[in-house]
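Morning F.,

Quick status update on the modeling queue. The single chain you submitted on Monday has been processed. Sequence for confirmation:
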Amino acid sequence: MKVILLQDVKGSGKKGELVDVSDGYARNFLLPRKLAKEANAQAMNELKNAEEAKEFRRKAELETAQKTAQIIEGKSVKLTATAGQGGKLFGSVTAKEIAEAIKKQFGVDVDKRKIELPGDIKAFGTYECEVRLHQSVTAKVYAVVGE
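Structure tokens below.
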């Protein structure tokens, strides 16, 4: 019997997969526990539509990431910080501050968790940061820290 899994089932498959299982296993275990539904024409059509919607969302996310990368690629983000003697900062510049500066200067939202810093930024200067916008899309941004 062909069924569409509604949840991950150990030994059978992952959620949303179409699998072929024995009739008894489907009738006595999967269907009563709402772990699967029978793969009739309506269920197959729903599965196909769900996969198409997922693919559409994936493409839209990639396009958005590419547009954002074009906007910020190679640009410099200016940050200000207070420092003591010798140019050492009080604290350090964080990814959150860089993300806020990108939003303020370029009008682009970037998640702070996607910004990879070269290390702790504890002095004035220019630092190269990598922004991972998508699995296959990255952009380099220069953080210029000044007084």
